[in-house]
Specification:
The complex is a heterodimer of chains A (148) and B (156). Chain A has 148 residues and is an alpha/beta fold. Chain A is built from five helices and five strands. In chain A, helix 3 packs parallel to helix 4. Chain A is globular. About 4% of the residues of chain A have low confidence. Helix content of chain B is 38%, strand content 22%. In chain B, strands 5-2-1-6-7 form a five-stranded parallel β-sheet, with helices on both faces. In chain B, helix 1 links the parallel strand 1 and strand 2. The chains are: A alpha/beta (148), B alpha/beta (156).
Chain lengths: 148, 156
């Protein structure tokens, strides 16, 4: 395993994906790419609105990537951050393909006792579409309880 | 990562899951348990006028074969491995076994040897993903895996 793609959305599951993915990268000395996919702003309302929405959607994205990269540096992992726009699963699979990663790590969004029985739609779509190994990481049970 | 459970049924995608899981185990210096689940009952098609009655599954050499192949692969890559033969519903048994040994990750192939091999994600891998409360690694068979062309790799 030389290259790992880690997808996060800042949710408990996403944070767990970052944690597990970086641990994996640290022990295998793999290079990690951490990706956050944000939704495209609603464009047709007008330029002023578009710019504001764009700025607003970048702020959390930057913070999540920044935090993840700080975590990577603390664990001595060679990592890069990416912020993509569009459908999460599609962008993750596409980036995995262009970087030719050996493994994708995604969190499964499981926010409650009920939701815990369902696989997140993004992780589900990534497992179906990515033609490479996918590690699906559930949220840490404690974090899951905190979010519920 | 200390303990990896790899599910195998001897099918093509399971063999690839074994190979990838072993690579991971070697890099992580983890120990591996290979798990194969056999059905409790089997339904043989009866005669034209007879009912198809479920028969208890009888263990045979063929049931151990996937595990023996996997062990041979583990030996050649220098990974500590044990095997476990289970009976029942594959997904439930795999998840329950992983819980009992507190595995760090469950490795499954994307599809097994079920009747509807056309469905991209097999019923066992889907069941494991749904039931498991621990990380699950889904490995597609090597033939389906794609790699970026050199041009695309340079562009990124």
């Amino acid at each position: 395993v030389n290259r790992i793609l880690i997808a996060t959305d800042g949710s408990p599951g996403g944070c767990e994906a970052v944690k597990q993915g970086l641990e994996l990268a640290a022990t295998t000395e793999a290079r990690a790419t951490i990706v956050y996919v944000r939704k495209p702003p609603f464009g047709i309302v007008g330029d002023a609105y578009y710019q504001r929405a764009l700025t607003a959607s970048f702020a959390p994205a930057r913070k999540i990537i920044h935090d993840a990269l700080a975590e990577a540096e603390a664990m001595d992992v060679d990592a890069e951050g990416e912020i993509m726009e569009g459908d999460a699963a599609e962008q993750i699979v596409e980036l995995a393909r262009s970087r030719d990663v050996d493994m994708i790590v995604v969190g499964s969004r499981a926010l409650g006792p009920l939701a815990a029985t369902l696989l997140g739609s993004v992780s589900n779509a990534v497992v179906h579409r990515a033609r490479r190994p996918v590690l699906v990481v559930g949220a840490d049970p404690d974090a899951r309880r905190a979010a519920a | 990562m200390k303990q990896i459970v790899i599910a195998t049924d001897g099918s093509g995608s399971a063999v690839d899951a074994v190979a990838f899981g072993l690579e991971l185990a070697r890099e992580q210096n983890a120990s591996v348990v290979f798990v194969h689940v056999v059905p409790l009952y089997e339904v043989f098609p009866g005669d034209v006028f007879a009912m198809a009655a479920p028969q208890p599954h009888e263990l045979s050499e063929a049931d151990r074969e996937p595990l023996e192949k996997a062990t041979a692969a583990a030996e050649s890559s220098g990974v500590r491995a044990t095997t476990q033969l289970l009976a029942g519903d594959p997904a439930n048994e795999i998840v329950a076994y992983a819980d009992s040994v507190d595995a760090d990750v469950i490795v499954v192939g994307s599809r097994g040897r079920g009747a509807i091999a056309g469905a991209f994600l097999g019923s066992v891998s889907r069941g494991v993903l749904r039931e498991a409360r621990r990380p699950v690694l889904v490995v597609p068979c090597a033939a389906q895996r794609e790699h970026a062309s050199p041009v695309e790799r340079r562009r990124s």
